[in-house]
Amino acid sequence: MIDITAEFWPGPNGGLFRICRSPDKINGHILYVPPLFEDANRHRHVFTRSAISAYQLNFKSIIYDAIGTGDSQKNLVDVTLAMWHEELLAQIIQIRLTSDKPLVLCLPTSAVLLLTTEIINKVDVLQLWQPEFNGKRFVQQFKRLALTQDLSSIKTYSLPSDDTIIEIAGYRLQHQLLDELTTQSLKSIFSDVAAKVKCFHFELLSDGERELTLSRKNQFQKLSQLHLNTHLITVQDYKYWQASELIDPKEFLAISLKCLQEIIDEG
Amino acid sequence: MNKQEIVNRLAKILMNMMPSYGQAYWQEDSELFGVLPEFDSMSIVTLIGEIEDIFDILIDDEDIDAENFETIGALASLIMNMVNSID
Q1: A139-163: per-residue pLDDT in tens?
Q2: Is residue A201 within a helix (H) or strand (E), and if so which, with residue range?
Q3: Can you list the alpha helix ranges (DSSP code H) found in B18-71?
Q4: A244 has which bridge partners?
Q5: Chain A closest CA to B38's CA: distance in Å?
Q6: Within 10 Å of residue A5's Cβ, how many Cβ atoms?
Q7: Are the Cβ atoms of A213 and B56 closer than 8 angstroms?
Q8: Comparing C-alpha atoms, which of A80, A50, A55, A61 is closest to residue A19?
Q9: Fewer CB atoms < 10 Å away: N or C end of chain A?
Q10: What percent of chain A has pLDDT over 70?
């Protein structure tokens, strides 16, 4: 029986909805950082599966909705990138105040855009799941949602905008937030990360892919140059977040869990 | 890279995105936009991202239109033109 609680945690900018799984004996902590906008919905079921598996290794886990998203307080239109940084940092500090066990951040795809050097230096391990460090590219893709909706006769998305607010794919937000995300990059995030932080960089290769694409290779090489303690792990499995139905990436989850076991073994 | 190779790569990407359609479904003349309910705005943007990544090209926003996303073959032609113009 898993000890699971749902709570509103008093974050620095409003209440965060969190689901916490707490084993009796704690070997470590995992904080699952939600990726941005629609991505958050596409990773939630894998967060849950991962947290349940990690519980068996006595990892305490937290899955949360960022402020202005999901069941957390505030509206997205009131959110800045600094707020998301602050709430992530505050959760890490709270864990650190009560435990000296290893702390792992799991960050799929666009979630890495919520990182800062200060945040990374406060944790022990990063699990990067197919990370997208290019804020400019992420924002370009997000804006393309409005373009692609124009192809359809059923128009439910719009791009009406005044000077400060934009609405894309039903997400109403400040231009400023997209501008801030655009400035996020590998270099700005990893410029001064402590060598002790172990970084597992997962790349999922779907059917037919034998190696990383050139752009993925380049991103990994840049990361490993900025941070030597980075380990590439390629896994043959579905890119589940791209699928139109829920996919259980068994192989990926098994290997991710193995990395958690290593943390325990290393003491 | 010839058109058939591009069609084959596209078929694999689309199989990953829409696994409920069997492998045999994905052919050059398979219809996409306006026919498959799963092929919505999000899917198109995801597909564009994968195409840019795999073929190492940048798709101009002006090329994101219904005609280019009508069938796998139409999309393959767009990609082939872009790849060849780089070469």
Answers
A1: 999 999 988 887 764 444 455 556 7
A2: strand A198-205
A3: 41-55
A4: none
A5: 6
A6: 9
A7: yes
A8: A61
A9: N
A10: 96
Q: For residues B17 and B39, what is the distance between their CA atoms, to the nearest angstrom?
A: 9
First-residue to last-residue Cα distance in chain A: 26
10 Å CB burial of residue B23 (0-12, 13-18, 19+) is exposed
Asked if A216 is an interface residue toward chain B (Cβ–Cβ < 8 A), one would say yes
Q: Which of A242, A245, A252 to mutate to test the interface with B (most CBs of B within 10 A)?
A: A242
Query: Contacts of residue A215 in chain B, CB cutoff 8 Å?
Result: 52-53, 56
Q: For residue A69, what are the CA distances in angstroms to A18, A179, A253?
A: 12, 19, 25
Residue B86 has pLDDT above 90, yes or no: no
Predicted TM-score (pTM) of the model is: 0.94
A242 part of contact set with chain B, CB < 8 Å: yes
The CA radius of gyration of chain B, in Å to the nearest whole number, is: 12
pLDDT for residue B84: 84
Buried b (16+ CB within 10 A) or exposed e, A189-206: bbeebeeebbbbbbbbbb
**Set of chain A residues whose Cβ sits within 8 Å of the Cβ of B14:** none
Q: Is the pLDDT of residue A54 over 60?
A: yes
Enumerate long-range contacts of A6-10, CB under 8 Å, 24 or more apart. Answer: A8/A72, A8/A73, A9/A64, A9/A91
Q: What would the pLDDT profile of A221-265 be if each residue is shown by its tens digit?
A: 999 999 999 999 999 999 999 999 999 999 999 999 999 999 999
Burial A66-92 (b: 16+ CB within 10 A, else e): bbbbeebbbebeebbbebbbbbbebbb
Q: Which domains are delineated in chain B?
A: 3-86 (1.10.1200.10)
Assigned superfamily of A4-133+197-265: Alpha/Beta hydrolase fold, catalytic domain (3.40.50.1820)
- Nearest chain A residue to B46, by CA: A242
Domain with CATH 3.40.50.1820 in chain A: 4-133+197-265
